Amino acid sequence: MMRVIVWFILSLAPAVAMANVYQLPEKGGRLIGEVQEHVVKKGDYFQTIAKEYNIGILELMETNPGVDPFLPTVGTKLVIPTQMLLPDVPREGIVINLPELRLYYFPTNGKEVHVFPVGIGRVGRETPEMVTKIKSRIPNPSWTPPASIRRDHLRERGEVLPPVVPAGPDNPLGKYAMQLSYGDGSYLIHGTNKDFGVGMRVSSGCVRLNPDDIEWLFHQAKYGDSVRVINETVKISSEPDGSQIIEVHSALSKSESDKHREKVVSMKAGVVKFISQEGIDSFKANDALLAQNGLPVNIRQTDEPQDVKSISGIESTASSEPTDESEPSASL
Description:
By secondary structure, this protein is α+β, with helices and mostly antiparallel strands. The protein is 19% helix and 23% strand. It is built from seven helices and 18 strands. The protein has a nine-stranded mixed beta sheet, with helices on one face. A three-stranded antiparallel beta sheet has the order 16-17-18. A hairpin with a 5-residue loop joins strand 7 (102-106) and strand 8. The longest helix is centred in the middle third of the chain and has 11 residues, at 147-157. It is globular.
């Protein structure tokens, strides 16, 4: 039912995107951005709001549980998750953190990071973790669907996919694709010809961006640039100002049955050590691990009330370059 709901609201909104650009923190910090607040207006629904802030619809739902994504009550204050911790990896090239459904792009100037929502592989066709690079950049790609995709498409939708889908408005890869040097080369970072699937787990393994986002990224990223795909559910940081920040996202389902179970966060040794150190408020840490709402939380002990709040203080209350001429045979 939830999938049907999300598909419906995705079909209603026009494709509008704007880059979310953040200055890189100094002195070893990892916290970027600020949480924003959106007051629901007449005619708003989650997809229009997600488009306005260029965030994923699932992260908006995660941050505002209990709010009707179709008909949010006018006047409801929604938390917009535009504050986050940078992933704990080198700040270079493209970094994709699967549980966040976010792509981070670090230009070579070393001063900023661009953050975009992405669609990733669905259950059974997961986007794999990888450390790789851009193998080729392909404008106006055609798509050669693998035999397995053609079989699944026929079984699930009753439609026969052609052996090759030419470039154009009917091509699901959109106008730009970047092939990754991983496995047989079937994994791509690409656009889409439909306003659907960005910020969700709907692809067959590829990484999908909004058309405006992939156009910008395509002209920034170069052949050989590094690409790192990680699965970091819990992010932590000891900030220069003394804040102890934790950000928790829901773990990715590994099977259809997992979708209906309560997600249990698996913590690495570094996370356990972080929340066990002196000066950590165990109640705040536990609340963050249970809420899994994707918002950074300061779990340093203070004399303030024990409510879980964002760092900003908004409460999470939600009643023509060389290209590879070969055509991509991609998982999409």
